[in-house]
Amino acid sequence: MDNLVIEVGYALDTFYFLISAALVMWMAAGFAMLEAGLVRSKNTVEILNKNALLYGIACIVYLIVGYNVMYPANPMSSVIPGIDFFLGADNTAADVLSGEEGAPYYSTMSDFIFQAVFAAATMSIVSGAVAERMRLWPFLIFAIVMVSVIYPVEGYWKWGGGFLDQMGFQDFAGSVVVHMAGASAALAAVILVGPRKGRYGKNGKPIAIPGANLPMATLGMFILWMGWFGFNGGSELKIANIDEANAVAKVFVNTNAAAAAGMVAAALLARFLFGKTDLTMTINGALAGLVAITAEPLMPSPAMATLIGAVGGLIVVGSVLLLDKLKLDDPVGAISVHGSAGIWGIFAVLISNPDATFMNQLIGTVVVFAWMFGATFVVLSIIKAVVGLRASEEEEMEGMDVHECGMTAYPEFTNDK
To answer: Which domains can be identified in the chain, with CATH numbers?
Structure first.
């Protein structure tokens, strides 16, 4: 192949990877806005602080060690990855232009930044589930362990060439590897931290705690929706030829269709069940549709992607109601959106991907859940024993903002004392 053609293809695929990474990074803003909008105003600053800091911490620890755990140069086995620190040199021109099969066609650095923002997104899922009662710094300590070891290990099993990949487990962009993984960790955290004060009555009946800023939460949904085009589209890994360009375009179409269908389906079901069109269900329906299509956004037809997203929207409504019955307090519905819809999405792969088998999808899902839930439970239990996890009753009542951050989000609406 002509060197100029190779160079242009390399540049285009690298550029596309970087733009996709930027879109996924923008999801950090979406998570922050969604979470801040769905909590009470007295906890807004702490939520924003947490989302900003977890992103920064995730990027640092993934750079130091997490990336090399997930993509080890010399893995110990298909289960245990190797360990190395920091990033090596990028591809040389000689490597790219060698013409050999398997020659790199995009920058290694672009791959790192794309994977780093995925790692941060996984941690953001946990953030929403423990909002309004888990202390800031214990959460950030857990983020270090999560992004340096816990998430990269299961990521290696699939995307780093580990045993789940060798087995034939299919997960295109991470319905299980990212979303259900984050939800599994979130579930362990919710169990250990417990529900917010006043969330359930004496008879166990759920008591609604409305969010303070639904316009902000809705903005968060649309930011996440936009970022998902990079999340799923970037996972195609290539765009610099006709077939790949067409594939990326189809991924975008299917991603959008699933989100739209999930949103509408959840809104219709909420209307049927409650007699009202609950905005939080509308928001989470869109996100559930996105999670559901993430496992296989390329092979379904747009009509099938619409159906997959719609089912995800229906599932998330039922899941939110079920978790309330179980007294598992999740202020933003993160476990339902990313967990329940993620499980549906991984099995929806069977509809369109002939390489997927039910048993492989089941094994992959169970393994990832067991690892993420178990490892998270152990690490958070240790943190709980050493420094504690939960804010005191007084801190929770007065708000995390004042006690954790020394400021409030809306001081002009706060009476001076």
So the answer is: 3-413 (1.10.3430.10)
